[in-house]
Design brief:
single chain, alpha/beta, Rossmann fold, 4-stranded antiparallel β-sheet, 7 helices, globular
């Protein structure tokens, strides 16, 4: 379970998030809201990419950026912001080296994830030659080899065509980890357990997807 205790974030004296107090234990959680509402800042708190100005964020009682980054994976909207090495297997090894794993263990983890999503043929490819859909799948693989407990995804399908969006979301639905998905594409939240609507830096609605999404869309029609 990830816990937000009276979390606020300020930047340059401006309040971005105000007194977020939540316990999140559901397996599939969606985050919705207008551009500039604070939802991306909220998402980045999960794994320490952002830190609270006030309050705390803990996962199973553990706090601090180091602990959060170890156990919470993050997939960006644009995989080019996440893929840093020129060859796929080198990029997938990057985070594992920081864990101090041996070469055999690293290779086993990488092979397992690539095989799971039928990506073995990309192992030795140049990352800049991958298609957009392939890049996003490799970005996801780079998170999964770390074996996180929770994965946060910030608009991960925005740059994908319909075929690749469906492929990516099929992969997400198969995962055993807890998932937090930020998305403007409300259809992606079908079957989720809980949805948070953030507006003006606060959680203004929190509950089952249908009523929360209905309230959000109704407000957008005003």
């Amino acid at each position: 379970m990830i816990r937000f205790r009276e979390v606020s974030v300020k930047k340059d004296g401006q309040a971005i998030l105000t007194e977020i107090d939540l316990s999140l234990s559901e397996r599939r959680i969606g985050i919705i809201g207008r551009n500039g509402s604070g939802k991306s800042t909220f998402a980045r708190l999960f794994n320490g990419l952002e830190t609270p100005t006030n309050g705390s964020v803990t996962l199973n009682g553990q706090g601090g950026s180091k602990a959060l980054r170890r156990h919470v994976g993050f997939v960006f909207q644009n995989p080019d912001n996440q893929i840093v090495y020129p060859i796929v297997h080198e990029d997938l090894e990057f985070g594992l080296k920081n864990l101090g794993l041996g070469k055999d263990e690293m290779r086993a983890r990488i092979d397992t994830v690539l095989r799971r999503f039928q990506l073995e043929h990309l192992r030795d490819r140049l990352t800049h030659q991958l298609s957009g859909g392939e890049k996003q799948m490799i970005a996801l693989a780079g998170v999964l080899v770390m074996r996180p407990r929770l994965i946060v995804l910030d608009e991960p399908t925005t740059l994908l065509d319909l075929w690749n969006k469906r492929r990516f979301m099929a992969a997400i639905h198969e995962l055993e980890q807890q998932i937090v998905l930020v998305s403007h594409d409300l259809d992606l939240l079908d079957g989720f357990d809980r949805v948070l609507h953030i507006d003006g830096g606060q959680v203004v609605a929190d509950g089952l997807p249908d009523p929360v999404i209905a309230g959000y869309t109704a407000g957008a029609q005003c």
